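Hello K.,

You asked for the raw outputs rather than the summary table, so here they are, unedited. I folded two proteins back to back in the same session to keep the settings identical. This is the first:
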Amino acid sequence: MTVASEPTARAAPGAGSPDQHGSTGPTGRAGLLAGANLSRIEPPSPPPFRLLPLSLAVLALASLPWLTAKYESGEWTRSSRETWASSVASGIAIAFGVWIIVLLRRERETASRHLADLEALTLTDPLTGLGNRRALERELARTMLRSRRLDHPLALLYMDVDDLKQVNDRFGHAAGDDTLRAAAHAVRQCSRDGTDSGYRVGGDEFVLIVLAERVGAEILAQRIADTFHEHSRHGSRVSLGVVEWDGAMTAGELLNEADRQMYRSKHMSRAENRTRTPGSA
């Protein structure tokens, strides 16, 4: 397996801006990547739970019997019986108000959990369990900003499963799905928890955000390729391209360059195979 990469010089932390729209207009496949909106997509946050206004409303409701007595007679109470009746009414109002507040908070927490679960589903590829393209768009912009602010290295690894169509045609689509799951397993097994993150962005394409310099990303790429080939039932291989962010490229340009390096690796591997097999076309 050949890993194609292009060394890049990191710009100063304050140089450039990780604009989420590519400023250039390349055509074809590269243009689709550079033109993708890679802004950070955040779900709308629910409005804060206002406990104070609700508490004041409950107190106002509880004070109604006393205010009514004051309005009718000019005094807070006229007899012990009325005092007892006003106290009971106030207690019922307070209990009812507390019950309503508890119900509202419980419903809000349940709705928040459901929204979080739904958000997780929209960011996950159902076949492999990795993040999907939307998750990549969200995390890449965030990681680029953090890399610039903390002056940490950042590399992008673009991976493509070789000849997946042949696996589908020869063994069936279930075998192709198993191959993709094996690729996802290799990504998860070789990545560092909390540091690297993997995403499936196309039918047979994966992208990893690696918090390391180019050399470290290349070592990770080789490890993923070896692990995948070992666990693939049909001896499939992958092509990988590695690009280190220079602090100036946009998110679209970074993905664009990693994609080009991946295809460069694929062409180099095919050329090596033709050289090793003289009778091949």
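The second followed immediately with the same parameters:
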Amino acid sequence: MMAHAVKILDVKMKRCGMGMKVKEDKRMYQASEKRYEEMRYHRAGDSGLMLPEVSLGLWHNFGDTSVYDNMKALCFTAFDHGITHFDLANNYGPAPGSAEKNFGRILREELSAYRDELIISTKAGYVMWDGPYGNWGSRKHMLASLDQSLQRMGLEYVDIFYHHRMDPETPLEETMSALSQAVTSGKALYVGLSNYNGPTLERAVKILQELHCPFVINQNRYSIFDRTIEQNGLKEMTKKLHKGLITFSPLAQGMLTNRYLDGIPADSRIRTDGRFLKEDTVNSRIQQVRKLNELAQQRGQTLAEMALAWLLRQEEVTSVLIGASKPQQILNNIKAMENIDFSEEELLAIEEISQATNA
């Protein structure tokens, strides 16, 4: 784990208003002065908002089952290396809401001096509380959820507020008007859409433009193994409409790393939390993973670096969201920026390997 610059304030004795003596012992994080030297930033579409090429997602490892000191180390490592964007959602945990609560504590205790250097996002749309208003895209759900998120994080506003998924029942106009109200009420600076497809995005943008709502970015799953946004029109539509695109699960929940090349480790997410990646899925892809790893080695990269670089080379991609359980993983992933150039032969090989049946 990297050592972080920490400013130690003297232990003092001070009298409070009631005449009691209170002992103060404060340790406050101090960011690296070199944090902006290596990271690259891109505008989200044609907006004025710039995001780092690599952003930190708090989907995993920030819930109440994780170690708080490790959460701090992850945030410090990210920010020390120019990662200014921290992405959350109302239901991230476990338990739902705990990632926002824990990140809010880090903000309050360590990062408050840097709030204006941070882009903090959250989302609403997946099930969060019981009853008919705890889910989907109604105005009731969206705006109540945002208020809850702000309270958990101790913030007056978030930088980006997303609708987390398409709602087949609620009129799109209602959901978009809730996003617009989040901005006009001062509780969000920008809005985004997550897990939308191309045709619905096009309809949503028209509504948001009429509302003069600053919609700047889409968030979708995208990786060498998951090409959904190439097939449902989302990627093409973001380019046509000049909107940003930030991708999550760029390493396919860890498959596009060296983690599973020689089997399933006992401490892997598959063994400790099998909700998002199954052993059968890894086994069905393992030969492709090994071939991609060989190609990455030929490029002088790890498989994870190559998988991230494959995304970063694409003009539609504003930023990639990484997850991490250890600070060193963040540093390793940032190295992907060092080589995002691919030959035509390499790109063709990636297509052939990723689309082939496992053999």
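The chain has twelve helices and 14 strands.

Happy to rerun anything if the numbers look odd on your end.

Regards,
P.
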